[in-house]
Amino acid sequence: MIRFKVTDRQRISAATTFLILVVSMAAGLVMIGLIFLVSGVSPLFAFNKIFVGSFGSLYGFKETVTKAIPLMLIGTGLALVFKAKFWNIGAEGQLLMGAIFGTWVGLNWEAALPPPLVVPIMFAAGFVGGALWGLIPAILKLRFAINEVISTLMLNYICAELMTLLIVGPWKSPDKFGFPYTDDLPAAAVLSLIPGSRIHTASLILAVTAALVLTLLIYQTRFGYEVRVIGENPEAARYAGIDFTRTTLLIMAISGGMAGLAGVGEVAGIHHYLSYPDTISSGYGFTAIIVAWLAKLNPLYVIFSAIFFAGILVGGDAIQISLGLPSATVAIFNGTLLFFLIMGDFFTKHRVRVVVVQRA
C-alpha cells in the first residue's frame, strides 16, 4: 500500500525556495496554456499577445505601469498583514472607501485650502477611510472571534453598494446628463501625469516609497519582529508579552490605509470623478492578493510582482480584443496562478514523501 507522509521542513535554502517558486509559476502557465488550448487558441500565440500587449511597446508599458501603481500600494499593505496571518480579503472595499473619502475632500475642501495642500489632504483622507474600513473586521475578530476572511469579503460588497448609493443619490452631479457620476474634481485636486501617459506621478512615488518603508518596518524594527512572531506562532507571541490586540489593529489600519491611497490615486489621477465601483477599480484589491503572494510577502518584491500582474491585466485586454476571448479570461489566469503559488508555498514549508506500507 502506498501512502503519502507529510512532514514540516526544518530548514530550506533560498535556492530551493526560489526553485519551488519557479516551478509553481511554470506549472501554472502550463495549466493556463491548456485552458487556452481547450478554448481553441494557440497557447504560444496567446502568451505572445499578452507579452507584446503589455511590454512590447512604449504605450503598452506605460499602461502596465499605470495599472501597477494600485497593485503596488495594496500589495505592500497586504504583505504586511499577511505576515501576521491575518487574511485581509477586503482591500477592494478599502480602496473604494479611500476613493469616497478622497473625493469628498476634493469636492468640498478645495476652495478652503491652499492649492498645494489639496492633494496631500486627499491622500490623507483616503488613507483614513481605508484604515477605518480595515479596522472593522479587525475589531470583529478581536472582540467576537469572527473569521476575518468572511468579514473582509462581505465588507467589499457593502462598500460597493455605498458608493453606488452616493453616485445615484446625494452626490450625483446635475451636470452629467443624468449619468450616475459626481461633479468633476477641481484642477487643484487632479494629479499630474507623466507626459504622454496616464501614470500619476504622486501615486507612483507613494507606491515605491511605501514598499521601501514597509520592507524596513517588517525586517528592521521591533514592530515588524512582533508581526512576524504573531504570524509564525501566536501562542509564543502572547507568552513573550506581545500586545496581540494593538499589533492587529495597527497592521489592519496600515493595510486598509494603503488600499485607500490606491483609491485616491485612481479617482484623482485617472477618472477625476466618482462613478461605479467596477469603473474605479478593475478588481485591484483581489489581484493584489496574488501580487503579495508572488512576492513571498516581501514589500520590496511587490514592486516587481505588481508590474508582472499589471502586464497580465493589460495583456488580457489585448487578447480580449484580438482573440475575442471573454473578460473572465484574466480572472481565470490570475486564479490559476494563485492556486499553483499556494501549492508551491505548501511544498516550501512541507516535505512530502511516498511511503510503501507492507500489508501483514
Q: Largest sheet, described in full?
A: 2 strands, antiparallel
First CA to last CA: what distance? 11 Å
Beta-strand segment tally = 2
| Residues in helix, % | over 70%
Q: Count of DSSP helices?
A: 14
Amount of beta strand: under 5%
Reading the helices and strands in chain order gives EHHHHHHHHHHHHHHE
The largest sheet has its strands arranged as 1-2
Mean pLDDT: 90
Overall spatial form: globular
Stretches where pLDDT is under 50 for at least 5 consecutive residues are: none
Structural class: mainly alpha
Taking all Cα atoms into account, the compactness measure Rg is 22 Å
3D architecture notes:
With 360 residues, this protein is mainly alpha-helical. It contains 14 helices and 2 strands. Strands 1-2 form a two-stranded antiparallel sheet. α3 packs across α12, α4 runs antiparallel to α5 and α8 crosses α10. The termini are close together.
Can you lay out the helices and strands and say which pair or pack?
Blueprint: E1 2-8, H1 14-38, H2 43-55, H3 58-83, H4 91-108, H5 115-144, H6 148-168, H7 201-220, H8 222-232, H9 234-239, H10 244-271, H11 277-280, H12 284-294, H13 299-323, H14 328-349, E2 350-356
Antiparallel strand pairs: 1-2
